[in-house]
Amino acid sequence: MTGPCARSFLSHTIMQKRLQWLWLIALGLAPIVLWILPGDFFDHSEVELCPSKAFFNIECLGCGMTRAVMHMHHLEIDSAAYYNPGVFVVFPGLVLLWGYWVWMAMGRLDLQQYILRLMPRRA
After folding, report:
1. For residue 48, what are the contacts with CB-CB under 8 A and spacing of at least 6?
2. For site-directed labelling of 111, which of 13, 28, 35, 63 has its Cα 20 to 30 A away?
3. What secondary structure does DSSP assign to the chain, as a single string?
4. Contact criterion met (CB below 8 Å) for 117 and 98
5. What's the confidence (pLDDT) of residue 123?
6. What is the pTM assigned to this prediction?
7. Over the stretch 13-65, which tens digit does the pLDDT of each residue have?
8. What pLDDT, on a 0 to 100 scale, did the predictor assign at position 49?
9. Vertex 98 angle, CA 84 and 105, to 5°
10. 3-state helix/strand/coil string of 59-89
11. Cα atoms found within 13 Å of the Cα of residue 76, Cβ hemisphere only
């Protein structure tokens, strides 16, 4: 394929690869940034983000989940359970979702084959 269409397709493919690399880098940096922030970073917010709490003054099942996940990320299990006991279900789900996103981003960049080579083979 030659001509303007080929160049357009090629630049589109290069742009997609760059966006995939940016996505993979952002996914890699997200847990690091959360580890750098203190565990109580979200504990003292003056802004009420929950619509249920803001409009009706009723706590929903998700109230405190952001704080609980942050404490769980820092392995502060007692504090996490205090803010929302549902964190014991949500946090592992978030970790699995994050791992899936990383794995899929690596697949789109053809990096999965390098990871699979590092894994021991079964006899």
Report:
1. 54
2. 35
3. --SHHHHHHHHHHHHHHHHHHHHHHHHHHHHHHHHHS-TTTTTT--S---HHHHHH----TTTTHHHHHHHHHTT-HHHHHHH-TTHHHHHHHHHHHHHHHHHHHHHHTT-HHHHHHHSPPP-
4. no
5. 63
6. 0.74
7. 888 889 999 999 999 999 999 999 888 888 887 776 778 887 888 888 888 89
8. 73
9. 165
10. CCCCCCHHHHHHHHHCCCHHHHHHHCCCHHH
11. 15
Contact by Cβ (8 Å): 98, 86: no
> Which position has the token pair 């966006």?
19
DSSP class of residue 123 equals: -
Specify the residue for token string 């357009």. 8
Measured from the Cβ of residue 79, the count of other Cβ atoms closer than 10 Å reads 18
What gap in Å lies between CA 91 and CA 65, rounded to an integer?
Answer: 9
Amino acid at 52: S
CB-count burial class (<10 Å; 0-12, 13-18, 19+) for 87? buried
CB 42 within 8 A of CB 70: yes
Q: What is the pLDDT of residue 15?
A: 86
